[in-house]
Structures are given as structure tokens and as C-alpha cells.
Amino acid sequence: MFDTGINAGDVYRHFKGNRYEIVTLAQDAEDGSLQVVYKALYPPYLTFVRPYAEFIEELDRTKYPSATQVHRFERGLRNRVRRKRCVRRVPAE
After folding, report:
1. Cα–Cα distance, 12 to 14 (Å, whole number)
2. 3 pLDDT exceeds 70?
3. Which of 9, 17, 47, 71 has the fewest C-beta atoms lying within 10 Å of its C-beta?
4. CA separation, residue 9 to residues 36, 58, 80, 87 (Å)
């Protein structure tokens, strides 16, 4: 549908320091614009929607002069949230 390089499960860091997991990409019903649906990886784990263009935009250096990131959101060091794996152990014979 959209080839953005952003995938469900990817983890991004907001320039203020919090981490967020991408839930999905969506299309606005009114104007067809691309939206990013993401959830906080900290309590209370709220879910947010932001226009894709805003999600990937460069920061305004006059408004945020001390920010260390170039973009509002940047992909985290760990690309995806670690999920617990269900491993079935087979007894040795």
C-alpha cells in the first residue's frame, strides 16, 4: 500500500526521549493523507496518530535548539520490540 520504510513493530525515539512502537500506517478518510499510528512504550501506553509528513519532519532548530536529533522521530537502536517467544521443548530421547 505505502512504501515508507516504516513497519509495524518498528521502534522510534521521539526527540524528547520517549520510545514508541509503530502500530500501523493508515489513510485519512477525508483527504487520503498517510497517517502513522503508534503507541507509547511507557505507562499508560497511549496510542497516537500523526500525519506521516509530520512524523518524519526535521526539527525546527529555532524552536528546539538543544535537541540532539535531526528528525522529530528517529528509528531506535533496537529496530523492533522484543516479543516473548513460545518455544516448545521436545524431550530428548
Report:
1. 7
2. yes
3. 17
4. 12, 22, 5, 21
